[in-house]
Write a structure and sequence with these properties.
heterodimer; A: 4 helices; about 75% helix; elongated; B: mainly alpha; two-stranded antiparallel ribbon; 25 helices; 2 strands; about 5% strand; globular
Chain lengths: ~110, ~625
């Protein structure tokens, strides 16, 4: 293998990061829609958050000379994620007290 | 300028104030005293008369000036609609005669309606009627005229349907209101058309409200800028509206279908309300007179209704119906005179006819009242011995209407003489023939009611002296007022069109009076010998039904209108309803789909939102590609 092909795989460019983030996003969305278990849904949500965070950091690395703003923002975002997940879990805890089930399909009160 | 003219709006304010007082009084049970109400009403009328006489004297002394006081009522950009009062000789004279008449009618109805439970309601309606009459007479422009024209119809409807608990009364009132709304629609259409044309051609925003101050200018504008057909059509709307109100052929049936209204209401409707159509024509005379066709139309309509209604009146046996036909016939003569261009003579004739006609109706009310509701004149007779005063008054009023003597003499002679002078011979023949017919049926009515043996066994109810007194006073008034109505008024209408009216110099009455007397003698003989058996039954039935015009309207309604409405019904039922069914189906199926989409699981909602976001992104990317490709951003 010549250098060009090697560098295509091992010189990590912006597009590698973006591809990784895209894969994570698609996995996350897919998991969110398809999963039956509520905790799997939460986990898939975390995939999406993760993909967004990677985008932040990648763009910060490649375009920001100070390389600080993206990192700071991603830290802020991680903190926000924690809060969100905590809220989601506590809401789910309240709902769980009614039905005693972790299956998403049991929670269909919004059905028209 | 002058105290009376400056405060002319009081004439308008008094009646509406009393109306409000009576209505509120009925509502709060405050003013129910009959004496108080009648005193207030009559007092306000006397005040009105004082103001009208004062302003008339001022107007005559100051070279027949006219004034208008207006305030802006509605402002739309440059167009400003004013309300206010416009005082000139014509309006003051008309208002004066109307209010004089109403004094007698109200004094009559104080006694006539005294035992009625809704006495105060009656006076409230009469005052509302007075308010709309005065508002119409003194209106400053055609818009205000329209407002009061509509109000006039409503108040007349209230008066006619006063004894609304009888079915026939409420039916005839409804009939009247329907015909009146026809005239309102015609008036409004004409108003809109005339405003549009003036707005388009003159660009003068002061003219678009159509004030009566420069009605002559408006007529000139219209005639010079529009073509003749459109001009005629527009003015014809006003003329038709006046024809409907004045109960002229072929719209006269609403008047003849009135029955069972109180006698003062009959008098008011037949003298005042009917003459408002003529007043409208006099007001817009400068516009109407520009067109030869319209004048011919007026003359033809007047001649037709005079002839037809006089013929119909020949065979009537109902006392009220005969007099109602007589009213239509008389107003027809007024229209004929207007159409021939003798507006002054027409005005004079209208005034004298108003007074005499009021007497006839009040006396017919007394007769019907004293015979406890009997209306068929064939069963009356010999009333002269019971109510001699009324018999004399009736005869005097008849003679005045026929134009043999008293106040009616001058105006009728003026019309006949000028028709002769200007060689309108066909109309002259019609006029003489109609006068003969009038003499025939009015004297027949007099003979049937007052002369001969009594043909019934009803006990005559005693007539109060006040009724006799007011009728007698009105009769004296009719005799005396001839002095003021001897010659035409000067400067009645400000117009460039000169009236072809010449003062009578040889007495045509020498020709006409013998004819009328001849007819009277023939009538008397006919009555005495009972020769009416020789008239074919079919002819008398035709005349009794008023040439079947009412039946014709009924046929129109029952056959043609119901055919039309069944077609409309079909369209409505199948076409529009079908459209509705399709719309219903579409919306129901759509909503079914959307309701199935609401699964309740948040994952499906998430899917929808992701799909929508993907579509939006795709569209955005497509748009950007197009922009970059074809440089839609300019220079890109």
């Amino acid at each position: 293998m010549n250098n060009e092909v090697l560098s295509m795989f091992f010189d990590i460019s912006l597009y590698h990061y973006l591809a990784l983030a895209l894969v994570l996003l698609v996995i996350g969305i897919f998991g969110t829609i398809v999963s039956k278990d509520i905790f799997k849904v939460f986990l898939s949500l975390c995939f999406i958050f993760c993909a967004v965070n990677i985008n932040f950091l990648a763009f910060a690395n490649f375009f920001d000379s100070v390389k600080l703003e993206g990192a700071v923002f991603s830290l802020f975002y991680i903190f926000l994620n924690f809060v969100e997940i905590i809220i989601l879990v506590s809401i789910f805890y309240i709902m769980f007290k009614d039905k005693h089930s972790t299956d998403v399909e049991d929670y269909e009160e919004l059905k028209g | 300028m002058n105290f009376y003219i400056d405060n002319m709006f009081i004439v308008l304010l008094f009646p509406i104030w009393i109306f409000a007082l009576i209505v509120l009084g009925r509502f709060f049970n405050l003013v129910q005293a009959r004496r108080l109400i009648s005193a207030l009403s009559l007092g306000s009328l006397f005040t009105c008369i004082v103001f009208l006489v004062g302003s008339l004297i001022f107007i005559v002394q100051n070279a027949n000036i006219s004034t208008d006081y207006t305030f802006p009522f509605l402002k739309i950009q440059n167009l400003c609609l004013n309300l206010g009062i416009y005082v000139d000789k014509l309006s003051v004279l008309t208002a004066l005669f109307v209010s004089l008449l109403c004094v007698f009618i109200q004094a009559f109805s104080v006694k006539f309606m005294y035992k009625d439970k809704s006495f105060s309601r009656f006076f409230g309606y009469i005052n509302l009627f007075m308010f709309s009459i005065f508002g119409f007479i003194f209106s400053a422009n055609l818009f205000q005229s329209y407002i009061f024209w509509a109000l006039l119809g409503v108040s007349a409807y209230l008066l006619i349907g006063f004894w609304y608990k009888k079915d026939s009364v409420s039916l005839s009132a409804k009939n009247m209101l329907f015909v009146d709304s026809l005239s309102n629609v015609l008036f409004l259409t004409g108003l809109i058309a005339i405003v549009t044309i003036i707005f388009e051609y003159s660009g003068d925003y002061n003219l678009t409200a159509i004030p009566f101050v420069n009605i002559a200018d408006i007529g000139d504008y219209l005639s010079s800028y529009t073509n003749t057909t459109i001009y005629c059509l527009i003015c014809m709307l006003f003329v038709l509206s006046a024809i409907v109100i004045s109960a002229q052929f072929p719209f006269h049936t609403w008047l003849e279908n009135l029955n069972d209204a109180p006698a003062p209401v009959f008098a008011l409707i037949n003298s005042v309300y009917v003459s408002m159509g003529v007043f409208l024509l006099l007001k817009i005379y400068p516009i109407v007179a520009n067109s030869e066709l319209l004048m011919n139309l007026l003359a033809v309509v007047g001649g037709c209704s005079a002839l037809i209604c006089a013929l119909c009146a020949l065979c009537q046996v109902d006392i009220n119906k005969l007099l109602l036909y007589s009213t239509s016939s008389q107003v027809g003569i007024v229209f004929l005179a207007l159409g021939l261009g003798f507006y002054n003579a027409a005005f004079l004739f209208l005034i004298t006819f108003m007074f005499a006609n009021t007497i006839l109706f009040l006396i017919s009310g007394i007769v019907v009242f004293s015979l406890s509701g009997l209306k068929n004149i064939k069963f009356m007779g010999g009333m002269r011995n019971e109510i001699p005063m009324c018999a004399i008054s009736f005869l005097i009023a008849t003679i005045s209407i026929l134009g043999i003597l008293f106040s009616g003499y001058f105006s009728k002679e003026l019309i006949l003489f000028n028709a002769f002078e200007n060689s309108h011979f066909i109309y002259l023949v019609i006029l003489i023939f109609v006068s003969m017919l009038e003499a025939f049926y009015l004297l027949r009515l007099y003979y049937y009611v007052f002369e001969g043996e009594r043909k019934n066994s009803y006990k005559i109810s005693p007539i109060s002296t006040i009724l006799n007194f007011s009728v007698g006073l009105l009769t004296i008034f009719v005799v005396l007022i001839g002095y003021f109505l001897k010659r035409p008024f000067e400067d009645l209408i400000k117009t460039d069109i000169s009236e072809k009216l010449s003062i009578v110099d040889f007495n045509l009455i020498f020709i006409i009076l013998p004819m009328i007397l001849l007819v009277a003698i023939v009538t008397f003989e006919w009555y005495r010998r009972g020769l009416n058996k020789f008239v074919p039954k079919s002819v008398s039935n035709l005349l009794l039904n008023g040439f079947g015009i009412d039946d014709f309207y009924e046929f129109l309604y029952k056959k043609i209108y119901s055919c039309f409405s069944s077609v409309c019904n079909f369209v409505d039922k199948y076409i529009f309803k079908g459209l509705m069914v399709v719309a219903n189906l579409i919306s129901r199926s759509l909503s079914w789909i959307f309701s199935k989409m609401q699964t309740g699981s948040f994952q499906s909602y998430l899917t929808y939102s992701i799909i929508v976001i993907a579509i939006i992104f795709a569209l955005l990317m497509f748009a950007y590609t197009m922009i970059i490709e074809y440089g839609l951003l300019g220079g890109g």
